[in-house]
């Protein structure tokens, strides 16, 4: 039988099996590369430099098994967005570029007991009130002015709960209970802390958003029940990260690593993959600073959750507890974590880098909160503001295939510049409201143009690949009602 290949210009991918394509190990590559995609998605992935960046990633010291590109992969900074790599935590390295600038950019979903019919007629009031009460856009603006950054960095969401911005059940339904104990504020520059001080509780700009949605489809009844999801239910999705704080942490450490570990940098095909050797002082310092940024981002989303609950209370004239506005889960997209994985039959501690990828642990994994340990981790995959989003659960094959990971969204098809040339923000908002009954409010029309539905890949296709490979099982689909953006 003839081996099936996919010609992508300078690269020829070999099909391992359906939806799994391999970039063979050659020259100085330490491992092969793998792309998880349908042929339709593969065509889109090969339109930019994603495959070159995937190949570059295979040169990182200590990389295990293969470098992986998810179905939503597209070109990033050095390391593809939608990329996953497990690097030996003892003999490998850690790379800020493989985590990204927006450390712990992530998404959380709030459930409610409201049905779509109860929202109808309130869309305009709801979107306006959310926009007025959740800070958006570039620069400052926050729920907590002059926030106690040191406490937030050290304690994460626990600080927010103790200050009245959340409840204990929020901790129980957040990845790592909203807290990384390895966080070390002493390893964070004053400049980073100053940037974060007045951004605690803000969406920011770009692809970040807050979206009220309705559940339109249930695919896995028993899992949906465990997650507390049902037909026509209203949920809220919050997507943002560590703002200028995380960006500054990444900038600081990239610069320092480039200067201190020039020898390792010279061995890599791209300086954007600058890495600190495992066990080095800089590797430890960056990990402590990155974990502090992770705590900041979780707290940021928690503060926005608090504001959202208060808006719903005012619009629907009842306590949020009565509307059962409980956290389903909070997942991280840009992160490197110490995790133990099976590599060739041996348990190894790895720095698992997920950049634009979501952890997707199946049932039984000890890191999961007790609420989901027997059913599997909730995975939230947002689409564009004109398409559906999905809730999945970690699939049985994720540990063997992807170090327990799956896609994080639809993935971009075109650059922001191209999007602004092709779309007019006001037209996009008008079309969404008139044709789809989706209400959008944003800081500027340019932001909406950059995030127009046509800018993104088909999220249905991305999720279908994840489901077919058994790395993330489809549980439910949601559809936008209203959306606010920076």
From TrEMBL:
Biased composition (Basic and acidic residues): 177-197
Membrane-spanning parts: none
Residue sites binding Mn(2+) 1 per the record: 102, 208
SUPFAM superfamilies: Hypothetical protein PH1602
UniProt entry keywords in alphabetical sequence: GTP-binding, Ligase, Manganese, Metal-binding, Nucleotide-binding
Binding site for GMP: 207-211, 333-334, 382-385, 389, 408-411, 485
Cofactor note: Binds 2 manganese ions per subunit.
GO biological process entries: tRNA splicing, via endonucleolytic cleavage and ligation
Catalytic reaction annotation: a 3'-end 2',3'-cyclophospho-ribonucleotide-RNA + a 5'-end dephospho-ribonucleoside-RNA + GTP + H2O = a ribonucleotidyl-ribonucleotide-RNA + GMP + diphosphate + H(+); a 3'-end 3'-phospho-ribonucleotide-RNA + a 5'-end dephospho-ribonucleoside-RNA + GTP = a ribonucleotidyl-ribonucleotide-RNA + GMP + diphosphate
Cofactors required: Mn(2+)
Keyword Lipid metabolism annotated: no
Residues at the catalytic site: 408 (gmp-histidine intermediate)
EC numbers: 6.5.1.-
Region of interest (Disordered), ranges: 177-204
GO molecular function: GTP binding; metal ion binding; RNA ligase (GTP) activity
Primary role: Essential for tRNA splicing and maturation. Acts by directly joining spliced tRNA halves to mature-sized tRNAs. Joins RNA with 2',3'-cyclic-phosphate or 3'-phosphate ends to RNA with 5'-hydroxy ends.
Subunit comment: Monomer.
Family affiliation: Belongs to the RtcB family.
Protein name: tRNA-splicing ligase RtcB
